[in-house]
Amino acid sequence: SRRCSSIPVAISALDSSNEEQHRISSRDHVGIKRREAMLQIASSVFFLPLAVSPAFAETNASEAFRVYTDEANKFEISIPQEDWQVGQAEPNGFKSITAFYPQETSTSNVSIAITGLGPDFTRMESFGKVEAFAETLVSGLDRSWQKPAGVTAKLIDSRSSKGFYYIEYTLQNPGEARKHLYSAIGMATNGWYNRLYTVTGQFTDEESAEQSSKIQKTVKSFRFI
């Protein structure tokens, strides 16, 4: 009798254990996916707009900027009017990469990297709050603690607005000019799965204040259509 009465207790304990393992497994799964997405965001920072093929699509815009429209990926962005080129590069692990950059030799550019996301990610808050997200992203890029020291990454600002995370930070390789980066990161669906859009503009300390203003305006102009 005592043996029979203990069976439901044992089954209940086993069920509780299985539920706990399932919760842990789910958290681990989401954590892995979050780290994968963060790695892709970080790697998009180092994209250089080389060997791209032109892909223009314009509509009316202000005198200083023109609107680039990507109907396939459902976004618009305003880019500087004078001599800025537009092109698409090899995806290299991304769903799509589009670059915008001056015709003359310059370290300034704006790139849009699109990556696929799993069903666990439905909005930017799925990655956590913007402050924690920014800290994780920038600290993941920092290698100043290595011997010899690698790239130094410093967070300047982070904020959330209208479904986007905006992050401003700097990167500096030893012996090289410091780069300023300004990113807008948002999420949208193409009808089948969610996609993460990472819009990153970069310029160096040597660039003029006017150029840096254009970069930030370009990044801030990004929107879904």
From TrEMBL:
GO cellular component, one term: extrinsic component of membrane
GO BP, one annotated term: photosynthesis
Protein name listed in UniProt: PsbP C-terminal domain-containing protein
Residues in the signal sequence: none
Domain PsbP C-terminal residues, every copy: 64-224
MF-aspect GO terms: calcium ion binding
A Pfam family this chain is assigned to: PsbP
